[in-house]
Design brief:
12% strand; 5 helices; DNA-binding; 117 residues; homodimer
Chain lengths: 117, 117
DNA sequence: CATAGTATCTTGTAAAACTAGGTGTTTTTT
DNA sequence: AAAAAACACCTAGTTTTACAAGATACTATG
């Protein structure tokens, strides 16, 4: 035991692992209420082990907007920098349902594989 | 309800979703016994909703081999085409443990997000 | 007044899943 | 017996996307 772990491999894999999951989690977070980009980053960093960067989330949100899964609206603040709030559309909610079923089914499959020693 | 689902988006997302997860599942599958590539594909297609192609798994297995997480060995068959069996190394097992903890922690986080209406 | 934090965005790069092929053998179908 | 399908491996090129590294601009703290 105490094998040497190739941290480069793990880091690369963790980064890899986010792909796809990110969109899913963003939509899940938006389900409860509209959020702005910077807020989503800090929520993500706080609640999950996925440390995502700004260069990741803004293009992603734009993709979701182009697909009409979210809408965005600028909110002028009394003080501070204006925020762009993203809100789930009905289409987004419907897509999230499909994605959720897919993820849940996959998790079940993985559980089954894990248990089948 | 009965929103129109953008199948193009879902298809792209599903494909996206595999990234990273694939390596994890391959290693999980190899944990129980050595397998050959074609076998891993059919196991995958049978047990999960991830339909992976041959052009995906062979480069992936070579990557895992280069990282020394698996070894490979040709097996001459009494009948049929020779198979290249892949086997998890001790290093691979150790890496799988790290990956497993990461995936489990992430799943917990997602559960928490899902429950926080 | 400089620094750290808030908030948005863009460009270029690297990684990897997939498409679309290729090779050759064995089994099944017609 | 010939054709088709399945088995089993592989590679080159395309596309997608997370990230690094930057730009911009406002606010609060020391």
């Amino acid at each position: 035991m105490n094998e040497e772990i190739n941290l480069y491999f793990i880091t690369k894999w963790k980064s890899q692992f986010k792909k796809g999951l990110l969109e899913y989690i963003i939509l899940l977070l938006l389900r409860s209420r509209p959020c702005y980009g910077y807020e989503l980053i800090s929520e993500m960093n706080q609640f999950t082990s996925l440390e995502i960067a700004e260069g990741t989330i803004y293009p992603l949100l734009n993709r979701l907007k182009k697909e009409k899964l979210v809408t965005s609206e600028w909110a002028e603040m009394d003080t501070g920098i204006p925020r762009k709030y993203y809100k789930l559309t009905e289409e987004g909610t419907a897509h999230l349902m499909v994605m959720r079923e897919y993820v849940d089914a996959l998790n079940l499959s993985i559980e089954r594989i894990k248990e089948s020693v």
